[in-house]
Amino acid sequence: MIQATQHASVNWDGSLGTGSGQLTFGDGAASDLPVSWASRTGHASGKTSPEELLAAAHASCYAMAFAHILEERGTPPQHLTVAADCTFEQVADGFKVSRVTLSVEGKVAGVTPEQFADAARAGERFCPISNALRGNVDITLTARLIPA
Q1: 70, 75, 78, 79: CA torsion to nearest 10
Q2: Which of 30, 36, 53, 104 is deepest in the core (most CB within 10 A)?
Q3: Residue-wise pLDDT tens digits, 87-100
Q4: Are 6 and 59 found together in one domain?
């Protein structure tokens, strides 16, 4: 049985509003990625945010899950493009990640648009990141089959 633990760390200097940090992935894939409060509120200036990282995690996880579902159904994808938009907003008692919008376009031989959409929904239900967020974050999905 597979079990893996991933690691990331942040060095932060200063207050929330004027401070900033540097994010490093434990496996060395990225280091010293700049992160700040301003990047969370739409003023990125070349810095990333937890929500952008969550969107990246969700898009990549969903792409793998969807590819797996398609392969299990006997129609592996030729190509998938997945985008995730993660919304961070102020609510009455603070801030929250309120929704993630996933969109996928794909080339898959031998499926109808309806079969593609059904597999896309199954991929979202199979996706570990979707499942981690489900019940706390609204997840929407759009799927479009591109003629192969």
Answers
A1: -20
A2: 104
A3: 999 999 999 999 99
A4: no
| Same domain membership, residue 54 and residue 110 | yes
Length of the chain: 148
Tens digits of residue pLDDT in 60-118:
999 999 999 999 999 999 999 999 999 999 999 999 999 999 999 999 999 999 999 99
For residue 7, the one-letter residue type is H
Burial annotation 127-140 (CB, 10 A radius, 16+ → b, else e): bebbeebeeebebe
CATH number of the domain residue 85 falls in? 3.30.300.20
Residues 10 and 58 in one domain: no
Among 74, 65, 59, which residue's Cα sits nearest to residue 115?
Answer: 74
Residue in the structure block whose two tokens are 């579902």 = 69
106 lies in which domain range?
50-146
DSSP labels, 83-109: EEEEEEEEETTEEEEEEEEEEEEEE-T
